Hints:
Layout: H1 23-27, E1 36-37, E2 40-41, E3 43-44, H2 55-68, H3 78-97, E4 106-109, H4 112-127, E5 133-137, H5 146-155, E6 158-162, H6 172-177, E7 183-189, H7 201-210, E8 215-218, H8 230-233, E9 237-241, E10 252-256, H9 258-263, E11 274-277, E12 282-284, H10 298-314, H11 316-335, E13 340-343, E14 352-357, H12 362-371, E15 374-375, E16 377-379, H13 384-390, E17 395-399, H14 406-422
Parallel strand pairs: 3-15, 5-6, 5-7, 7-8, 8-9
Antiparallel strand pairs: 1-2, 4-10, 9-10, 11-12, 13-14, 14-17, 16-17
Amino acid sequence: xxxxxxxxxxxxxxxxxxxxxxxxxxxxxxxxxxxxxxxxxxxxxxxxxxxxxxxxxxxxxxxxxxxxxxxxxxxxxxxxxxxxxxxxxxxxxxxxxxxxxxxxxxxxxxxxxxxxxxxxxxxxxxxxxxxxxxxxxxxxxxxxxxxxxxxxxxxxxxxxxxxxxxxxxxxxxxxxxxxxxxxxxxxxxxxxxxxxxxxxxxxxxxxxxxxxxxxxxxxxxxxxxxxxxxxxxxxxxxxxxxxxxxxxxxxxxxxxxxxxxxxxxxxxxxxxxxxxxxxxxxxxxxxxxxxxxxxxxxxxxxxxxxxxxxxxxxxxxxxxxxxxxxxxxxxxxxxxxxxxxxxxxxxxxxxxxxxxxxxxxxxxxxxxxxxxxxxxxxxxxxxxxxxxxxxxxxxxxxxxxxxxxxxxxxxxxxxxxxxxxxxx
Length: 424
Ligand code: 7TS
């Protein structure tokens, strides 16, 4: 393609979306969105890697360090009590956000990666033995593959992988066939970070539960985009990261059903996770503190709570509806460009548009888009097996948040035309 002609503008602000979502007002809550990069207006489409932070989250972090900083749970003084109360209030905010039955089912961790490792190293080490199997899917992020591989290697167990079709959808019948008496746990992404596929979790969980197999859900790419209700899903574990849902980095959540968490051994040893310690014997703290050794990310928890309150004020259903329209618009616009092939065309998708351009390496696509101020991600997205499945080394991936606009999608599409022009 040699034409430099811009794609026709959609000619209307994103406000014209049927959902009536005031995206311009929302954008003003995110200071970074106003900055330039490389002399161009920033178009941030790398939200699956990490999202930007609203002012309320940034303020919660600095307010904590300015006015509230103290170590928690152990202090008798004013600031320690204040910090403890704020930290535990954040736990309740998370509990309500995902509708967990009890705040003690909310374990604070470093992120999705740590949450999954925690389950593999505690529940997994107790329940998975030689000859047993762990079942995942072909579209998992490395952090929902490697912790299970480590466990299987240690125990002489086998990692089984449920296949997908060419649209990037899980083959449910194949998945069901892989559930056997040897399967000790299922670990599955709610939403694929590389393809955007939303998995049919209710069915997956029902199928597994029919055989009394617990299910861990990697919710890293779901929580920023849709309402998650762990009780309705009936999942046994649900893992997610604060930084992908507009909170700070270094913070995340493991939800686990209380009955399972109670029965699991501790993950790490240290302060806070104990009830009493002698050199002969240590007894462990109650939930969730049994799994929270050492001084936690106090500011991170409080600021994640602020992010959730911010999301609640907008409403997850409004966010989901707006993003659905945005993704449909992006899909139409980008797939209409000759030479572009979408990777991941599931019927149910959220947040992600992965693509390859004929004859052009995704890395070059990303580099040229960057010159236009458009930030996307290129590579295997820490999901190498899914790249192998599609027979490609990498994709270019645009990933969206509710502060993105139709105009930004158009900037992406025009950027792609420019890439093709450069390589023509
Ligand atoms: N699971 C999924 C589905 C993910 O997308 C990611 C990060 C993780 C787990 C790990 O999360 P962390 O917060 O513990 O690192 N995904 C990406 C991505 O798509 N691009 O950069 C990071």
